[in-house]
Amino acid sequence: MRDFISMLDITKEELKDLLKLTETLKEKQKKGEIFEPLKGKTLALIFEKPSTRTRVSFEVGVIQLGGHGIYMDTRSSQLGRGEPIKDTARVLSRYVDGIVIRTFKQERIVELGRYSKVPVINALSNEEHPCQILADLFTIKEYCRDFKGLKVAFLGDGNNVCNSWLIGAAMTGINFYAATPQGYEPSEFYIKKAEEIAKTTSAEIVITNDPVEAVKEANIVYTDVWASMGQEEETEKRREIFMPYQVNSELLKHAKPDVLFMHCLPAHRGEEVTEDVIESCRSIVWDQAENRLHTQKALLTMLIR
Ligand code: CP
Ligand code: NVA
């Protein structure tokens, strides 16, 4: 693995190693042990969309690993004035040891990776959110130990998070059911890739428009915002279309009695999830958010040389 632009960039074995390393790094941090493999290294952190978790977990993570991060946004850099991403890639590669980028089109990150001489990490694009899925898988491992046989139901928009989840589930053998309204299914490309990978792990990949079918006997119910960053003007329209996919206590009655609730956050109470569900003892969203830090530290340790 040279870059982490897509969940497709990591092999099953590397993913296993990363989750193992995460466990070690989390333990070290809890014990206050110093581990600084990034001493003297610098990362550029480019954010062309807002962020709380991803930005802070990368900034804190690189500091804990002994390195340094430089935050860049569109407005205060030449990116906002139209400097091509391929030029930015070549210039930043002369200064830094890695580039983390959150942007709109996945192709922009792919182009950055093509021209960069240092590793590039996708911190969310319209098509994928691979760093999120690393933290989600680690959190599930902490709670459930084993992936095989688990059923994860993803409810709502077949968006970036859902696309990356398809690959993550296929690689780990998790049975993944995505229930979305018609016309909001995940991308065909990721469905096909997930189905190919699933043949090697026996994961079940099911795309449905029926929320009850997805949630039935699920171990984990997962959701995300209905209108992602960049889709703000569709908020009203989507609220109506997505309401049958809201994660509420009625819907959760179809899941296993000990079902866990997950959400990448930020959450919109009363929309994709109700207040009682996200605040219940079944909700593991804060562990999930914390694990962004630990999994990304493992990723940086593996990628940055
Ligand atoms: N889950 C996630 O990526 O959150 P942020 O948008 O706050 O980074
Ligand atoms: N699908 C959401 C994820 C936010 C972390 C978005 O792209 O806005």
Automatic annotation (TrEMBL):
<keyword id="KW-0963">Cytoplasm</keyword>
<dbReference type="GO" id="GO:0005737">
    <property type="term" value="C:cytoplasm"/>
</dbReference>
<dbReference type="GO" id="GO:0019240">
    <property type="term" value="P:citrulline biosynthetic process"/>
</dbReference>
<dbReference type="InterPro" id="IPR036901">
    <property type="entry name" value="Asp/Orn_carbamoylTrfase_sf"/>
</dbReference>
<dbReference type="InterPro" id="IPR006130">
    <property type="entry name" value="Asp/Orn_carbamoylTrfase"/>
</dbReference>
<feature type="binding site">
    <location>
        <position position="102"/>
    </location>
    <ligand>
        <name>carbamoyl phosphate</name>
    </ligand>
</feature>
<dbReference type="GO" id="GO:0004585">
    <property type="term" value="F:ornithine carbamoyltransferase activity"/>
</dbReference>
<comment type="similarity">
    <text>Belongs to the aspartate/ornithine carbamoyltransferase superfamily. OTCase family.</text>
</comment>
<feature type="binding site">
    <location>
        <begin position="228"/>
        <end position="229"/>
    </location>
    <ligand>
        <name>L-ornithine</name>
    </ligand>
</feature>
<feature type="binding site">
    <location>
        <position position="224"/>
    </location>
    <ligand>
        <name>L-ornithine</name>
    </ligand>
</feature>
<dbReference type="GO" id="GO:0042450">
    <property type="term" value="P:L-arginine biosynthetic process via ornithine"/>
</dbReference>
<protein>
    <recommendedName>
        <fullName>Ornithine carbamoyltransferase</fullName>
        <ecNumber>2.1.3.3</ecNumber>
    </recommendedName>
</protein>
<dbReference type="Pfam" id="PF00185">
    <property type="entry name" value="OTCace"/>
</dbReference>
<dbReference type="Pfam" id="PF02729">
    <property type="entry name" value="OTCace_N"/>
</dbReference>
<feature type="binding site">
    <location>
        <position position="292"/>
    </location>
    <ligand>
        <name>carbamoyl phosphate</name>
    </ligand>
</feature>
<comment type="pathway">
    <text>Amino-acid biosynthesis; L-arginine biosynthesis; L-arginine from L-ornithine and carbamoyl phosphate: step 1/3.</text>
</comment>
<feature type="binding site">
    <location>
        <begin position="129"/>
        <end position="132"/>
    </location>
    <ligand>
        <name>carbamoyl phosphate</name>
    </ligand>
</feature>
<dbReference type="InterPro" id="IPR024904">
    <property type="entry name" value="OTCase_ArgI"/>
</dbReference>
<feature type="binding site">
    <location>
        <begin position="264"/>
        <end position="265"/>
    </location>
    <ligand>
        <name>carbamoyl phosphate</name>
    </ligand>
</feature>
<keyword id="KW-0808">Transferase</keyword>
<dbReference type="InterPro" id="IPR002292">
    <property type="entry name" value="Orn/put_carbamltrans"/>
</dbReference>
<feature type="domain" description="Aspartate/ornithine carbamoyltransferase Asp/Orn-binding">
    <location>
        <begin position="148"/>
        <end position="302"/>
    </location>
</feature>
<feature type="binding site">
    <location>
        <position position="78"/>
    </location>
    <ligand>
        <name>carbamoyl phosphate</name>
    </ligand>
</feature>
<feature type="binding site">
    <location>
        <begin position="51"/>
        <end position="54"/>
    </location>
    <ligand>
        <name>carbamoyl phosphate</name>
    </ligand>
</feature>
<feature type="domain" description="Aspartate/ornithine carbamoyltransferase carbamoyl-P binding">
    <location>
        <begin position="2"/>
        <end position="142"/>
    </location>
</feature>
<dbReference type="GO" id="GO:0016597">
    <property type="term" value="F:amino acid binding"/>
</dbReference>
<feature type="binding site">
    <location>
        <position position="160"/>
    </location>
    <ligand>
        <name>L-ornithine</name>
    </ligand>
</feature>
<dbReference type="InterPro" id="IPR006131">
    <property type="entry name" value="Asp_carbamoyltransf_Asp/Orn-bd"/>
</dbReference>
<dbReference type="InterPro" id="IPR006132">
    <property type="entry name" value="Asp/Orn_carbamoyltranf_P-bd"/>
</dbReference>
